[in-house]
Amino acid sequence: MIIVMKNNTVEEEINKIKRKMESLGCEIHESRGKNYHLLGLVGDTSKIDPSQIEANRNVDKLMFVQEPYKKANRLFHPEDSVVNVNGREIGGKKFIVIAGPCSVESEQQILSIAEDIRESGASFLRGGAYKPRTSPYSFQGLQDEGLELLKLAREKTGLPIVTELMSPDKIEKFIEDVDIIQIGARNMQNFDLLKEVGRTQKPVLLKRGMSATIEELLMAAEYIMSEGNERVILCERGIRTFEKYTRNTLDLSAIPVIKKHSHLPVIVDPSHAGGLWWLVEPLAKAALTVGADGLMIEVHNDPANARCDGQQSIKPERFNCLMEKLRRLAKVENKEL
Amino acid sequence: MIIVMKNNTVEEEINKIKRKMESLGCEIHESRGKNYHLLGLVGDTSKIDPSQIEANRNVDKLMFVQEPYKKANRLFHPEDSVVNVNGREIGGKKFIVIAGPCSVESEQQILSIAEDIRESGASFLRGGAYKPRTSPYSFQGLQDEGLELLKLAREKTGLPIVTELMSPDKIEKFIEDVDIIQIGARNMQNFDLLKEVGRTQKPVLLKRGMSATIEELLMAAEYIMSEGNERVILCERGIRTFEKYTRNTLDLSAIPVIKKHSHLPVIVDPSHAGGLWWLVEPLAKAALTVGADGLMIEVHNDPANARCDGQQSIKPERFNCLMEKLRRLAKVENKEL
Amino acid sequence: MIIVMKNNTVEEEINKIKRKMESLGCEIHESRGKNYHLLGLVGDTSKIDPSQIEANRNVDKLMFVQEPYKKANRLFHPEDSVVNVNGREIGGKKFIVIAGPCSVESEQQILSIAEDIRESGASFLRGGAYKPRTSPYSFQGLQDEGLELLKLAREKTGLPIVTELMSPDKIEKFIEDVDIIQIGARNMQNFDLLKEVGRTQKPVLLKRGMSATIEELLMAAEYIMSEGNERVILCERGIRTFEKYTRNTLDLSAIPVIKKHSHLPVIVDPSHAGGLWWLVEPLAKAALTVGADGLMIEVHNDPANARCDGQQSIKPERFNCLMEKLRRLAKVENKEL
Amino acid sequence: MIIVMKNNTVEEEINKIKRKMESLGCEIHESRGKNYHLLGLVGDTSKIDPSQIEANRNVDKLMFVQEPYKKANRLFHPEDSVVNVNGREIGGKKFIVIAGPCSVESEQQILSIAEDIRESGASFLRGGAYKPRTSPYSFQGLQDEGLELLKLAREKTGLPIVTELMSPDKIEKFIEDVDIIQIGARNMQNFDLLKEVGRTQKPVLLKRGMSATIEELLMAAEYIMSEGNERVILCERGIRTFEKYTRNTLDLSAIPVIKKHSHLPVIVDPSHAGGLWWLVEPLAKAALTVGADGLMIEVHNDPANARCDGQQSIKPERFNCLMEKLRRLAKVENKEL
For D82-137, how does the pLDDT look when each residue is reduced to its tens digit (9 = 90+)? Predict the structure, then answer.
C-alpha cells in the first residue's frame, strides 16, 4: 500500500501517520518528488483498513500494490484447486456440464429432464426450488417441495444436485440435501449468507454479481473461504452493460483473468448471460475455448410453457447436439468431457 | 403489454397465444403491418409473467405499456405518502435530516455525536451496528453492543434511531429496538429480507442498489409493500459509473423522476454517494433544491480516527454550518426544516 | 412504432396526432385499455423522427417495433454480405486475420513484421499512421511517412493494408493509397467522417465505440451505407465496463447478435479489448468459435520497446503458434483459414 | 509514476528499466517488500508514455501519482479562470445562462426565441445549425443557412451566439461568425477537431462525452489548451448509465470535483441530461446550488412541433419563470445572475 500525502503537509502530520503505520507493524519507505510525497508500506498490510487512512485530511489518496484477497489468491496457492463433489471433479483437466431447468415444476418435468441430460453427458443436475424474482407477483418456485423433487431426480439418475440458497434459515436443510449450494448473483454481497455457507464444508457455486468486478467476486469468495470453507467454484454469468439486445453481456475475458489471479475453478452460464436460447450454443462453445472449467446450461422439455426463463432454455435434443459439438472442441483443447 | 410476433408466424400459432392470453382474462387487440404483427393485451396484465410469453418461439419481443409496480405507483395513489415515525413526519412539506456516524464505536462517541447533531437540528440518529464490509478482514461493527449504545443515545437525546438490518434472524430485535429499519444498497434485491421487513409495521429506509435502475428500486419497495408494510422511505445514495474521482455518482434526477412515478418519500445520502467529505455540502444543498424530502449525512467527532468511512464524514461544527445553509435554502424552496 | 398516449388525453388532441401521422402516410390502429390508449402506426415509419412525436405533451412514450436501420438490416437482405478486397473475401465461409503493429515506427519494423505475419498466414496488414491518443503529449504516429511505409510493406509482401482515417481532409490520400479504411472507436459517431467514407467505394472497417450499443454500431454503418457505400465490415473491440483488470470487456455475444440482425461481416479485435498480450490467444480462439468472420491482432517484433500499446502486442513467434491453433479450431468449425 | 515490478524479476532486468527511466530524466526511488518491488519515478514524468513501460514483460502494473493534465490542472494555476466573450464573463462570481432552440428552424423562430430569452435574462443564444443525429434519416440542421439566421438574431438582440462545429472544414467560417464554438459530446475525443479549435483564439464550449470520465474531459481540454487556446469552458450534460427513465444521468458531483482539480469554468446542460422538459427546472436549480458557473437550456416557442428534441425544450414563459427562481437562489448562493 502506498500513501500519497497532500502537497505541503507539515512534517509533524507526516510523522504522526508514520508512527501510526509503524505501530501496525509496517516498515515505511519514504519518497519525495517536487509535487508529491509518498509513504510506501512494507509488510503485511492486509489487516489495515484503507478507509482509516483515507480519512486523514492530509492524505491525498491510497494506491494498492497487492490484491486484497489472500485465500483466493493464486500468489499464495499456485496450483489449480480441484473441487471434488461425490467423486466428480470440478477444475483441472475436466470440463463439466451442469444442466437442468430454471425452476423445478413437477415430478414428471424434473425426472424427464434429468434423465435426458444425463444421457447426453451432463454430470450435475440444476433446478431452482427457491427463486429470486424481480417481481413479488411472479412464481417464486415450489420451495421445499421443489427440493424434494430434486432429491428424487438425484436418486433416479445418480446426478448430484445444485440449487440456490437464498436465506440463512434454510442452511441446515441444504447441508443435508444438496450437493452444491448455489449463491445467486443478487446475493453475491449478502455477507451474512456468505459467512453462513463459509461455516459449512459444502461445495459452493458462487455467481458473479450483475455489476460486480472480478476483484469483488474474489472478495466474496474470500468471505466464504475466510470462514473455513475453501470449496468454492466461481461462475461468470454476464454483467450489466448498456447493450439492449442481450439481457446481460457475458464477460469471457473474465475466465483467463480469474485463472491468472486465483486458483479457484470457474464455470460459465451462457443461458442467463444472453437470456436468449439461440445464444447458448455459440457462447457455450466460446466458453470452452477460452478456458472455462465447465458450463451451467438451462434445459427444459417444453420451454414455451416453462414457468420461468423459457426464452433462454434449450430443449433436450438441442442440448444433446450441443454436447456433441463441445466434445469435438474439448478434444482440440485437451479437456476431458 | 404488447406482444410482437415474428414475421410469417402461422395463423395457428397466433391463435394459440391469443387463446392463452384470453384464458388469463385479457382482451386482445390485433394490429398487422407489412413487416410485423402485434397483439395488444387489454386488462389487468400484472399477473402475467413476461418470461412465459417471451419463451414462445414465435414471439419476437414484448413491450410494456404499464409499470410493473402497483402499490408504489403514483397512478393508483396520487397523493404524496407521509411516513410518521414516533410523531415525526417524513414526506410532504417537511425536510428532515438523519445524521450520525458510519458505525457506532463507543458510548462516548455516539452520545457526543447524537447530542451535537440534535442541537444542530437533525431529527433522526443513524449509526451502523452490523456493518456490510467488502473485506472479511475489515471491522464488522460492534453488533448487538452497537445497538444497545444506539438505544442509550436515543434515551438521552430523544432522537429516533435508524440502523441497518443485514439478516432475517435479527428481525425480532429490530422490531423491538429500532425506529427505522434500514435496508442497505447491497441487499436491495435480497428478496427474503425484503419480505421479512414487509411483514412488520416498522418504517423501512430502502437504499437504491449500486447499479439498480429506478424501476428496480420501486420493485424492491413493491416487495415490502406487497407483504403489507406500506411505510417505505426510499434513499438515493449514488450509482456505479465509470467515474473514478468519486466513489459513486449521485443521481439527483432520480428525485423528480421518483416523485413523478411514485408517492413514496425519497431522501438523499450525499456521504456515501461521493465518498468524500468535501462533496457533502454542495450535494446536500443540491438535494434540497432538486426536491428531496430529506438527507442522511455521516457526522463523526474524529473522522481521522473513525473505524470506517472517515473520509466521507464531516465534523459536528461543519454539520452545524451546513444546517444553517440548508435552512436558508429551505426558506426559498418552501420546505419546513 | 406505437404511440402511448397519456391517460385522460382529450379526444381532440388524439385526433390531432392521428391526422398528423396519417398525413405522413401511416395507417393507424387504435387500442384502448383501462389505463392506457395506444396508437399503432402501420406503414413505412422510417422517415418519422421519434423526437417530433415525443415532444407532444400528451404522449407518454414511444415504443419501437422495427429496427431503425434498413440497409444494414438482415430483414431486407437475408444473405450474408461478403466484402471483396483486392480478390480477398471477408465474410461467408472465410475466416481472415488482419495483423500488424499498433503504429508504424520505421521501415525496418514494418517490413519485418509484415513478412512474418504473411508467412504465418495473415491476409491483411494493419498499422497506425495517424494515431488517436488520449494525451496530446503522447506519440501521434508517423503521419504521412507512416502511410508511405505501409505502401512499401504492401509492395514487398502483397498484403492489402488497413489503417485508420481520423479527419475528412485526408480522404483523397486514403482513397488512393489504402485498401481498407478504418474508422476508430472514438470516431464511430463522428457523423461527418462517416458520410465522407460513405461517398467513396472503399471497404470500411468500422469499430464499435467504447460505450456503443449494437444498435448504435449498426446505425453508424447505416450512415456509411446510406451515402452509397455498402462495403462495411464491423469490428467488435471491447466495451467499457466497471471491470478494472482489463482495459475493456470483449463482448463476444455481439457476434451472433449482429449476425442475426445484420448481413454485414464482423470481426474481433482481441488486442484492444483486453489490453493485455496474454489475453489475445484465449480471446482469439473464442472469437473464432463464437462465429466471427475474422480477427485483427497486434503483432510487434519488440513489444517492450513499441512506441504504443506494447503491452497488448504479441511477438511474431507467438502469433505463428496462435495461427496454428486457430487452424485446428477452424477445421472443427468448418471455416476456411 | 510508480512502477510495480513482477515478483522474481532478475536484477538485470530491473537495472535495464532503471537506466531507461534515468535516461528520460527521472530520479528513481526503490522500495522492496516481501511480495513486491517498486520503482518510484521522481521528476517530470508527463512526457513518459505509460504504455511504453507497461509493455515491459517484467512490469506488473503502473500507478499514477499525478494527474496527466497540466494546463487544465488547478495545481499549476490556482486561480479560477474567467473567459471573457465580447465583454461578458464566464466563471468567477458570475452565473450565466445560455438559451435557445435545439436547432435553428426559421428566421421567425430564432428571432422570436432570441428576443424572449434576452428579456428573461439569458446572456447567450444557442441554436444548432449543423446537427449530429443518430439516424442519417433525421433532420440534419439548416446548415449554413442556420448559421446566417443565428447571425441575424445576434444582430437584433446583441446576444453572442454559441453553435456546434462538427468538422474541421468549417473552422474558418466559425472563426468569422461564431462567438463560442461548441464541441459536442460525440466529438469530445475527435482529436483532430480539438487540435483545430486549439489553434484558434475563440472560446470553446467543450461538452463531456456520454461515457467519459472527468479525467478524460480534462484531457480533451488539455488537447485544446496544448495547441495554445486556453479559453475553454467545460459542460456537464449527463452520462450514460443503466437508468431508463431519463436519457442520461446528470452528474452534478462533477461540478465540485472539476472545480477542485481544474481552474476552468464549468456549466450544466439540464435539457440534454434528462431529455425531459419537466426535469429542466429542478436540475437547473440544483446545478446553481452545487456550484456551476452557468446553464445551457433548450427553449422553443412551439416544442410540440420542434424539428428536434422538443420533448426536452421548455417554452419561453416557463423559461422566464425559471429565471425568476434562479435569481432567488443566486442571491442565497452569492452568485451574480
Answer: 999 999 999 999 999 999 999 999 999 999 999 999 999 999 999 999 999 989 98
Do residue B282 and residue D273 have CB atoms under 8 angstroms apart? no
Tell whether B103 and B231 lie within a shared domain: yes
- Measured distance CA(C292)–CA(C70) in Å, rounded: 22
Domain boundary among B41, B63, B85: B63
Q: Are residues A190 and A300 in the same domain?
A: yes
CB contact (8 A) between residue D286 and residue B282:
no
What's the pLDDT at D265? 98
In a domain, D69, yes or no: no
Q: Which residues of D touch A248 (CB under 8 A)?
A: none
Q: What are the pLDDT digits (tens) for D154-202?
A: 999 999 999 999 999 999 999 999 999 999 999 999 999 999 999 999 9
Q: What's the pLDDT tens digit per position in C65-117?
A: 888 999 999 988 999 999 999 999 999 999 999 999 999 999 999 999 999 99
Neighbours of chain A (3+ CB pairs under 8 A): B, C, D
Q: What residue numbers bound the domain in which A33 lies? A: 2-63
Please name the member of A135, A191, A219 whose beta carbon is closest to the beta carbon of B219.
A135
Do C50 and C164 fall within a single domain?
no
- Give the number of domains in chain C: 2
Residue range A145-168: average pLDDT?
A: 97
Which residues of chain C are at the A interface, by a Cβ-Cβ cutoff of 8 Å? 211-215, 239, 241-246, 249-257, 260-261, 273-274, 278-279, 282-283, 285-291, 328-329, 332
Q: Interface of chain D against chain B, CB under 8 Å?
A: 211-215, 239, 241-246, 249-257, 260-261, 273-274, 278-279, 282-283, 285-291, 328-329, 332
Residue A149 has pLDDT above 90, yes or no: yes
Q: Which residues does residue A4 pair with via DSSP β-bridges, in sequence order?
A: A38, A61
Do C46 and C148 reside in the same domain of the chain? no
- DSSP SS3 for B299: strand
Which residues from C are below 8 Å from A326, CB to CB?
none
C-alpha cell at C210: 467504447
Q: Subunits that touch chain B (at least 3 Cβ pairs < 8 angstroms)?
A: A, C, D
Count of A-C CB contacts under 8 Å: 117
Residue A64's pLDDT is what?
Answer: 85
Whether residue A337 lies inside any domain: the answer is no
- D68 in a domain, yes or no? no
Chain D residues with CB-CB distance to A29 below 8 A: 29, 31
Which of B22, B43, B63 finishes a domain?
Answer: B63
Q: Is A323 helix (H, G, I), strand (E, B) or coil?
A: helix
Q: Which three cell numbers stand for residue C280?
A: 489475445
The rounded percent of chain C whose pLDDT value lies above 70 is: 99
Give the containing element (helix H, strand E) for C286.
helix C277-290
Instruction: Name the residue among A325, B315, B249, C49 with its Cα closest to residue D255.
Output: B249
Full DSSP string of A11-70: HHHHHHHHHHHHHTT-EEEEEE-SS-EEEEEES--TTS-HHHHHTSTTEEEEE-SS-S-S
Does the pLDDT of residue B110 top 90, yes or no? Answer: yes
Position C33 scores a pLDDT of: 72
Query: What is the pLDDT averaged over residues C257-266?
Result: 98
Would you call A308 and B49 a contact, using CB atoms and an 8 Å cutoff?
Answer: yes
Q: Which chain C residues touch B134 with a CB distance below 8 Å?
A: none
What's the length of chain B?
A: 337
**CATH number for the domain harbouring residue B11:** 3.30.70.1140
Closest to A314 in 3D by CA, of A295, A330, A328: A295
Confidence of residue A56 (pLDDT cuts 50, 70, 90): confident
If asked whether residues B57 and B85 sit together in one domain, one would say no
- Give B27→chain C minimum CA distance, Å: 9
Report the CATH number that the domain containing residue A301 is assigned in CATH.
Answer: 3.20.20.70
Give the mean model confidence (pLDDT) for residues D21-29. Answer: 85
Residue C337 lies in a domain: no
- C206 and C114 belong to one structural domain: yes
Q: Are residues D263 and D218 in the same domain?
A: yes
Are A280 and A208 part of one and the same domain? yes
Cβ contact, residue pair C40, B40, below 8 Å: yes
**Residue A161, C-alpha cell as written in the block:** 444436485
Beta bridge partners, D80, equal none
Query: How would you list the strands of the sheet with B37-42, edge to edge?
Result: B27-32, B37-42, B2-5, B59-63
